[in-house]
Amino acid sequence: MKRSTGARMSATAAVSVLSLALMTGCSSDGSDDSKDSANSGSSSSPTVAAKAYSAAELEKLLLAEGEIEGYKVTSGDDTLPASKSVLKVDKAECEPVAHSMAALPPGDTDAQASNTVTQAAPSDSASTSLEDLAEGDFSEAFNLAATYVGLSSYEGDGAEKAFKAVSDGVTACSGGFGFSAEGTDTKITKIAPEKASGAGDESVAFAAESAMDGDGTGVFHTEVVRHGNTIATYYTVNLALVTSGKAYDVPAAVIDAQAAKLK
User: Fold this and answer.
1) Given the DSSP bridges, would you call strands 202-211 and 112-119 parallel, antiparallel or unpaired?
2) Residue 81 has what DSSP assignment?
3) 3-state secondary structure of 171
4) pTM of the model
5) CA angle 219-239-140, nearest 5°?
6) Hey, is 141 helix, strand or coil?
7) Alpha-carbon distances of 17 from 70, 77, 109, 213, 257, rounded to whole Å
8) What pLDDT, in 10s, does the model give residues 97-131?
């Protein structure tokens, strides 16, 4: 994880995953309408007969370049933590929430895979590199959402337990929590439920608010969806809007496209 000051540090934190402090500006406004309902779907959906995938199989199930119009898909992002051991969360009940924001499995499994799905630049000359954006160019020309997608799969009722842990964590961690990643400490000051997409067997969505290293407050969005024995997590950041207070969400197109590959 990179260290710097001012706006660049804030941007890098957001791009850098949980250090996520991520700054993702979610909108403080759009959270009033129906975003008070975090869960949808039925937790009673049977998973016993559902297939639990291996890490190699999950890699093939991730969205690939050319499978979602208007977006670029890359194999991953080296700013993401490689494992849960990188993240130290100060409240055990908040760990599933933090892991979901880092494209890591919210439950106990080694079967995982992740990638990054970014809106295509408005022109061939515009950069979609998060590293470039982290240098401080937050103009509307770079009003692009990057979504970190994580897939994890579980045996038995593991996926249901993982999903419940996230759902319960959204409530238990409403007052926030702290975490550290590679020497950088971050304080999430608020977790608030949002309206979930309704994809899969059940889904939960939430916004997290964090101080942005003296540059105001950033809000970012996460959605977690259970498809049988597989959990899909989506963490979205828009560097142009992170501290603006303007609304944005996890792109429905990304959730829909990924859900289609998990059917």
Assistant:
1) unpaired
2) -
3) helix
4) 0.79
5) 120
6) helix
7) 23, 9, 20, 15, 23
8) 999 999 999 999 999 999 999 988 765 444 445 55
**Listed residue (200, 203, 231, 205) closest to 26, CA to CA:** 205
3-state secondary structure of 224: strand
Strand partners, 79: none
Pairing of strands 17-20, 87-89: unpaired
d(CA 203, CA 167) in angstroms, rounded, equals 9
CA–CA distances in Å: residue 246 to residues 59, 77, 82, 143, 256: 34, 25, 31, 11, 23
The Cα 56–Cα 13 span in angstroms is 29
pLDDT single digits (tens) 14-63: 444 343 443 333 333 333 343 344 555 444 444 445 679 999 999 999 99
CB count in 10 Å sphere of residue 150: 26
Give the pLDDT score at 248: 82
